[in-house]
Amino acid sequence: MKLDEDRCYRAVNSKDARFDGVFYTAVTSTGIYCRPSCPARTPKRENVRFYATAAAAHDAGFRACRRCRPDAAPGSPEWDVRADTVGRAMRLIRDGVVESDGVPGLAERLGYSTRHVHRLLADEVGAGPLAIARSNRAHHARILLETTGLPVTDVAFASGFASVRQFNDTLRTVYDSTPSGLRAASRRRSPRSRPTAAPSGAITLRLAVRKPFAYDGLLRFLEARAVPGVEVVRDGTYARTLRLPHGEGVVALTPAPDHVACVLELSDLRDTMAAVNRCRALLDLDADPVAIDEVLGDDPALSTAVSTTPGVRVPGHVDGYELAVRAVVGQQVSVAGARTTLGRIVRERGTALVPELHPLAAAYALSHVFPEPEALAAADPAGLGMPRSRGATVVGVADAVAVGKLDLTPSADREALREELLRLRGIGPWTADYVLMRATRDPDVLLATDLVIGRRLQALGLTPSRTTDPTLRWSPWRSYAAMHLWNLPDRPASERQP
């Protein structure tokens, strides 16, 4: 990703927080790198270098600024926008593929040699896959050290390090500090800040967001679709169970204008990074709302909606497989009807939680984890409480995931996934696009075949045709335009969001 250095320096000179996490500023005279909004005096232009990732700054020999903590900013939205190999690679690394499968596993998923993947990333983001993964682990470790009371050894393994020695060496390289030094410095900066009280065995985190953050709409969206026993919205908090690589988990998320309070209860601390990444995806925390609103707000068709509700997010999901099943179950039925059917499927085929082992789940009356793909793949379509044809589609989706034919993770090849979904009997363009929008976080899916959105576009005189598509002026943010269109006022009561 080639950076416009003059534009970057103007952002640094104006302390523009909109660019925090989008690029990093390294100062040759001090040997540190900062976020663009760092409150320190603006360095001379000749002493500044710009990097697309924190990993690139680390690789160039710079250490993170202790004052502005550049790695604590939300992640760059660039990697969710891009559908190319580099974008997929960055999403795969963020999802922990390097830790689980190594660089060869990353290269295999991308369909290239390890050398080619390393060259692509080095050219585009300034660092190879190992360096990027190391930077991600260090960033995650710092969050845990500063916001939780976990023992240092637990932090090391929860952050994906293979040993405490590797953990210590990495923090010394990246931050020029020891784990205990980072924790002590955090306490000195905020002497009243201590780990928030949580149920026994749970950890608390503070997830960064970019403002503005229209979280009320997110909570309403999630509450309307909450599956009994799996998720609930209560008193401004969204809580749900999680199906994670090493076991079950429970999370409670309480959004605020400038952050999200996160309480995690995990059966295995190795799942901490995966759980945090899924929560960030669910609430779309790495979005760039200012950039999105600038594009959509400039259009008279959406300007009022954007000015009324700035910072709209597109709800993602914690599990693409679960989302795909829910999308199929919800075909041609009301939201309430889909919830009832899904609740019954969960009770009959999901994994029951033991309340004594999961006090956070018990506190929110959560009883089950969504069924494993193998459990639904083995089900009789006629026994799922819906038309047999739709039940067969649910079984088909679950089977495709179980055998590894269908990749529904955020790092999936979006074009290939859409084609694979459309090959499954019972899945049409609307369902495929809805899954892409929420499971892969594709920011540019309009869902023009949706009944409500189609009516909105027709009323605005923007209906796409075979030769023209006036909605292209909203690219690459048409998923956000869809959220605004769904939420336009004065629509008939019979109209509903999916």
From TrEMBL:
InterPro entries found in the cross-reference section: Ada-like_dom_sf, Ada_DNA_repair_Zn-bd, AlkA_N, AlkA_N_sf, Alkylbase_DNA_Glycosylase/TA, DNA_glycosylase, HhH-GPD_domain, HhH_base_excis_C
Cellular component GO terms held in the UniProt record: cytoplasm; protein-DNA complex
GO molecular function, one term: DNA-7-methylguanine glycosylase activity
Enzyme class: hydrolase
EC number: 3.2.2.21
Record domain HTH araC/xylS-type: where: 87-185
CDD domains: ENDO3c
Cofactor requirement: Zn(2+)
UniProtKB keywords: Activator, DNA damage, DNA repair, DNA-binding, Metal-binding, Methyltransferase, Transcription, Transcription regulation, Transferase, Zinc
The protein, known as: DNA-3-methyladenine glycosylase II
Species for this entry: Mumia zhuanghuii
